[in-house]
Amino acid sequence: MLLTLAGCVVGEKESEGGSEAGSDSDAAPATTTTGDSQTTAVPTTTGDSGEVTGECSVWAQDCPAGAKCVPFDSTGTGVVDSTRCIEIAEPAGKAGDPCTAEGGIVGIDDCDADLLCWLLDPDGHGTCLPLCQGTPAAPTCGGGLVCDVSNGGLLPLCLTTCNPLASSCPSGQTCIPSMAEVFVCDGDVSGDAGAYGDECEFLNVCDPGLLCTTATNVPGCAAVGCCTEFCDLSLAQSMPEMCSGAPDQECLPFYDPGAAPPGLEEVGLCGIKM
After folding, report:
1. How far apart are the first and last CA of the chain?
2. DSSP E strand stretches across 101-248
3. Phi, psi of 59 (to 5 degrees)
4. Which end of the chain, C or N, has fewer beta carbons within 10 A?
5. What digits encode the pLDDT tens for the residues 195-250?
6. Which residues, 6 or more positions from 146, have their beta carbon under 8 angstroms from its beta carbon?
7. Which residues are 270's β-sheet partners?
8. What's the total number of domains in the chain?
């Protein structure tokens, strides 16, 4: 990407009640959260396997019979930071079913094997979403979904793709960059904040249509990162005022030349050209 997302964390945070100024794009180091919390953009791996160590492996699913390995929020802050084995509920929710995370803690849920209760509301109710299959080097998802790996490699979720210029994400979700070099729908945990110029650290804490990017891209930003708008490169010449920070800001390409996936060629981000 041509923009630097320095300072934002790539990951996902679930709301208590989940990719990033610093995610897959070079906007600003950002993390995604599962609600009101946040996580980081570039997965951290160990050894040569590309896997992150922990109590168990979400890829190998090496827990005892009757249990599943899940991404886990060990601190109860809404940020996935480890893995653990939990007993599979009976009956267990299937993909797309409503679910409950006990105490609102990500990872302790009533979804079936290979599923995680995500997109949590303040009461800990969410939806069972598939975990990626395969390996960290060759992840797979069914049903036309894309594997989005965040939170230092601990959170591999199968998510729906989207276009930030014409997002079709459901209410309560926002379109953010993923490690798969495309955009995916994930939980919007911006709350009362997330407007243009607001301070941010995580990918999904800005309002829909905006992204957390490094302070160098937003005039007057005094934090590590601030929210700025996505913009349409095809309209950049005719509508230079489309960026709230104009004339200091302009619509800059989100992808490097020739690197944009089909349908995302006109995606830009309002920033300051260096």
Report:
1. 14
2. 115-118, 125-130, 133-134, 139-140, 146-150, 155-159, 173-177, 183-187, 199-200, 210-214, 225-232
3. -85, -45
4. C
5. 999 999 888 899 999 999 999 999 999 999 999 999 999 998 888 788 999 999 99
6. 158, 159, 160, 161, 178, 180, 182, 184
7. 251
8. 1
